[in-house]
Amino acid sequence: MRRSHSPRALRLGRGRLRTPVVRAALFVFVLAGALLAAIVFTLNRNADRTNAQQAATELASGARVAASAFAAARSDLRAQAGELATSLDLQRAIVANDDAAIERIAAAHHARIQARGETTGELPAPPRITSTATIAQGAHVLARVTLALPLGKTLLTLIRSATPLPSHAALVLVRDGRVVAGGPIGSTALIRNGRVVFGSTPFTAKAAPLGVAGASVLAIEPVAAVEARGVAYRRRLLIAAVLTLALAAGLATRLGRPLARMFGELTDQAERDSLTGLANRRVIDERLEEELDRSRRYRTHLALILVDIDNFKSVNDRHGHQCGDDVLRAVAPTLAGSLRELDLAGRFGGEEFAIVLPGTSVTSACRIAEQIRRALAKVSVTAPDGEPISVTASFGAAEFPVNGSVAALVEAADRALYKAKRDGKDRVVADGSDAASAPGEPSAVTPL
């Protein structure tokens, strides 16, 4: 007798046939999801580390520049005291014992004048920095003139105007561990693991000593703002992960090639600076460690050049950050196109770049830097208002084995770079040499 099959039985049979396929698809999907989750976690962690390193580099650079601006303010205060001491009005008043004139001059210049055992004028209350100049006749001191600059908001504003910092960063003046300007006055500024907390807000912080009155300057940026820099990358990473999982669910057997291509691009993003396309800070640090270890084993040279775009803050202030980004993009191909295949150029942080030159002495590195400097002089960027912006940069070079570690190599190149900045910019300076290249001059290096 022939048995008939009901529709319900047919559906059950087909369901049993589909079960192994569903299980296999689910297994592939879960395996792909676990692998994808591990990759996303690793890329995100590396991106966060790179982001934190770049933020720390920018803040450390800002703190150093702020300390230099403070030193310039002290020098200016000394110059003002000298100018007041040599002014004819004050000297005539002292010679004529004209107390009224001395008092008027002291009030006009917020100065303290000591003459004939009497003191005229008052200085701002501490904490402050002072500078004193003398008025003498032969070996006899006729008077002393003292000017002061309070360690407070006015000084901090002056320093901040000369300091390039990220948009959410700020400067804080600290004396003996206590905030005197730029933050909660009197609160303790204790840096731990590169962070300081004011109220309930944690900040990434880098400090630079000012060399007077136990004072330091902190460059700080909210941790939330630093972390927010990676939001766009994490969003792209999440979108890529979701799309990949969706593709894996439907095309499990043909997923290999799309995944390899997609994650290859994501890995490249984690190793490349998104703005310039050059290597990022993490890759530079790793390459320096590798090349220094190789140079130590084979007893060869290794050179490092730090490059800082001149007057970059003024470009941002005058033409906007988009124009500043255009300048960075214009500089990148000039750096990369001037190097050998085994060399590495990357963005070190902000407007600062680094060039790693294996098997190269500092003398040869200076020649390469001079070639790049001259090439950059031909680079021009058009501002939004149509104004052409010329590009110049300052260079600092150092070498191994003169500097025996990565930290020492970076410090020496950084020291040379800041000397190039102080000496007038648009020049090449090498650590430990005795001449400098400047516009229109042959390549050479300058002593530190």
Q: Rounded to an integer, what's the Rg over CA atoms?
A: 31 Å
The poorly predicted ranges are 1-18, 255-260, 440-448
Report the helical percentage: 40-55%
Strand order of the largest sheet: 6-5-9-8-7
Summed up, the domain count is 2
Helix vs. strand class: alpha+beta
Let me know the number of strands: 16
Report strand %: 15-25%
Question: Which word captures the global form?
Answer: elongated
Distance between the termini: 107 Å
User: What is the H-and-E element order?
Assistant: HHHEEEEHEEEEEHHHHEHHEEHEEEHE
Report the average pLDDT across residues: 82
**How many helices?**
12
Reported for the largest beta sheet, the result is:
5 strands, antiparallel
Write up what this structure looks like.
By secondary structure, the protein is an alpha+beta fold. The chain has two domains: 19-107 and 150-271, no CATH class; 275-430, Reverse transcriptase/Diguanylate cyclase domain (Alpha-Beta Plaits, 2-Layer Sandwich), CATH 3.30.70.270. Helix content is 50%, strand content 22%. The protein is built from twelve helices and 16 strands. It has helices at 7-85, 88-95, 99-109, 153-161, 223-228, 231-250, 256-271, 281-298, 312-319, 321-336, 362-376, 406-422; strands at 112-115, 118-120, 128-137, 140-150, 170-175, 178-181, 195-198, 201-209, 215-222, 302-309, 344-349, 352-358, 380-382, 388-390, 393-400, 428-430. Helix 9 packs antiparallel against helix 10. The longest helix has 79 residues, at 7-85.
